[in-house]
């Protein structure tokens, strides 16, 4: 059942209340992406002002990733059980307070703590916001359009964050921390009036406390281990033991979830091939892009000597293309389905990364960098909304938060893992005599890894296109029963 708010007017237009609901949710997604991109450019100024070492500065970024990636599973299920509106608004309020704290502190540890709290709150707003959309907008063209606009806000926020941080840091790095606070407060006030009220799930079989503890602990430890591995070494006893502990925790988590009457993550949802491809596609999509963005920023600033603002403007065409296409992607999904669009998007992404491999120490922007950015922007416009639509289609309303948490976890874990892998590859090839050409040559294997991850995403997607039936088909989706023995056949376009 979806909310009555999802009903458009008789002529097919959305009501002002419907638009307002979507804008509030988009604001939270926009803030998440804005915050991530702004802090990276401000790090040198933060280190100089607070006297922080490079390793401490890393935790200003990693603290956010740790809180976000580690608690998404819990955040998604909490939205289902405690009420999506309540969880979203409380977490958004915490995000605003943490932003205010981050802009006022004069201590590295306090700043890192504020970043962790912001990541933690985003781990609740992201799945709650996505599940509000999927339960407010009816599945099909209405939801596809809403999700296309919603996911576009992430790319727009990220692109604007790069530009704004270059401007704000010139005045004070504290402005980059404080800017999200008033936006979050405005969204909070609007949300109190506009977001549909959602009842708590009444028929659940209790709270899966062991699953919540094991799931959160395993994700926290996994993200922590991956983030730290490039610094302490991938083959060190500490890293290997941490990965072993992650494997033990995940095994225990799976065993608990299989026996729990009200699991944190119902494993039966992963019986759907579309769901598995959406999760793995999210890992490959964000993992490749984060690695690309990291290396490209180093290339532009360290080798070419571009300013932070110049670098941000170089990335801007990709974000602008995503923003301009936001209202069109939903109708394209309606016509062609998610699988084809994801495959085309990954193909464009591979082409963009391959073209970027031709860079040198004196690049012609219009010949190499701009076409690469446009190809990658087109890929993001097609892939990210389609992954969200594919992951949430055919899922019962009371499990939308859970699936949203799974998808966001895949995105964050993919970004953390492949950024660490790319960093390790580049570090391993670092030249003894760092001439500009030698440094550029050390970057190339990292770009090859990025392209290979995108190729893996394309191959995973293509498995869903082999021997496909017509677009409208019956997809088997396991029902959320205690024993998971019954199945529904849900008509869905994938």
TrEMBL record:
Record bears the keyword Membrane: yes
Keywords: Antibiotic resistance, Cell membrane, Membrane, Transmembrane, Transmembrane helix, Transport
PROSITE patterns xref list: MFS, SUGAR_TRANSPORT_1
Domain of life: Bacteria
A cellular component term, taken from the record's GO annotations: plasma membrane
Parts of the chain that traverse the membrane: 21-44, 56-75, 87-104, 116-135, 147-169, 175-195, 207-229, 235-256, 276-295, 307-329, 341-359, 365-384, 405-426, 446-465
Membrane topology field: Multi-pass membrane protein
GO molecular function terms listed in the Swiss-Prot or TrEMBL record: transmembrane transporter activity
Name recorded for this polypeptide: Transmembrane efflux protein
């Amino acid at each position: 059942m979806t909310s009555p708010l999802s009903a458009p007017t008789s002529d097919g237009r959305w009501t002002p209340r419907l638009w307002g609901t979507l804008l509030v949710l988009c604001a939270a997604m926009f803030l998440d992406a804005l915050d991530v991109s702004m802090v990276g450019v401000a790090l040198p100024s933060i280190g100089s002002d607070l006297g922080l070492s490079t390793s401490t500065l890393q935790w200003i970024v990693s603290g956010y990733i740790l809180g976000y990636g580690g608690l998404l599973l819990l955040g998604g299920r909490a939205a289902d059980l405690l009420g999506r509106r309540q969880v979203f608004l409380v977490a958004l309020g915490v995000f605003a307070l943490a932003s205010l704290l981050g802009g006022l502190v004069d201590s590295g540890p306090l700043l890192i703590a504020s970043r962790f709290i912001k990541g933690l709150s985003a781990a609740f707003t992201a799945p709650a916001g996505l599940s509000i959309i999927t339960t407010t907008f009816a599945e099909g063209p209405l939801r596809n359009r809403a999700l296309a606009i919603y996911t576009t806000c992430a790319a727009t926020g990220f692109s604007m964050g790069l530009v704004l941080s270059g401007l704000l840091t010139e005045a004070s790095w504290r402005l980059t921390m404080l800017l999200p606070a008033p936006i979050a407060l405005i969204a909070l006030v609007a949300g109190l009036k506009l977001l549909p009220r959602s009842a708590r799930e009444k028929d659940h079989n209790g709270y899966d406390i062991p699953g919540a503890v094991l799931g959160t602990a395993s994700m926290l430890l996994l993200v922590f281990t991956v983030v730290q591995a490039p610094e302490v070494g991938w083959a060190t006893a500490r890293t290997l033991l941490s990965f072993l502990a992650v494997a033990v925790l995940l095994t225990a988590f799976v065993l608990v979830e299989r026996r729990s009457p009200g699991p944190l993550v119902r494993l039966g949802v992963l019986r759907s091939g579309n769901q598995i491809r959406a999760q793995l596609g999210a890992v490959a999509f964000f993992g490749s892009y984060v690695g690309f963005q990291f290396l490209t920023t180093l290339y532009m600033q360290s080798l070419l000597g571009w300013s932070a603002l110049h670098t941000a403007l170089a990335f801007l065409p990709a974000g602008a293309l995503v923003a301009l296409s936001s209202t069109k992607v939903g109708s394209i999904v309606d016509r062609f389905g998610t699988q084809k669009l994801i495959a085309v998007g990954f193909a464009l992404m591979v082409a963009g990364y391959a073209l970027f491999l031709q860079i040198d120490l004196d690049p012609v922007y219009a010949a190499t960098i701009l076409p690469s950015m446009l190809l990658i922007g087109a890929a993001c416009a097609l892939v990210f909304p389609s992954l969200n639509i594919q992951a949430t289609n055919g899922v019962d309303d009371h499990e939308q938060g859970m699936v949203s948490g799974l998808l966001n976890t895949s995105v964050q874990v993919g970004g953390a893992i492949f950024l660490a892998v790319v960093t390790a590859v580049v570090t391993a090839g670092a030249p003894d005599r760092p001439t500009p050409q030698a440094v550029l040559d050390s970057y190339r294997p990292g770009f090859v890894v990025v392209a290979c991850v995108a190729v893996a995403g394309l191959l995973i997607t293509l498995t869903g296109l082999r021997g496909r039936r017509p677009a409208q088909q019956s997809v088997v989706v396991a029902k959320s029963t205690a024993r998971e023995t019954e199945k529904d056949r849900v008509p869905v376009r994938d």
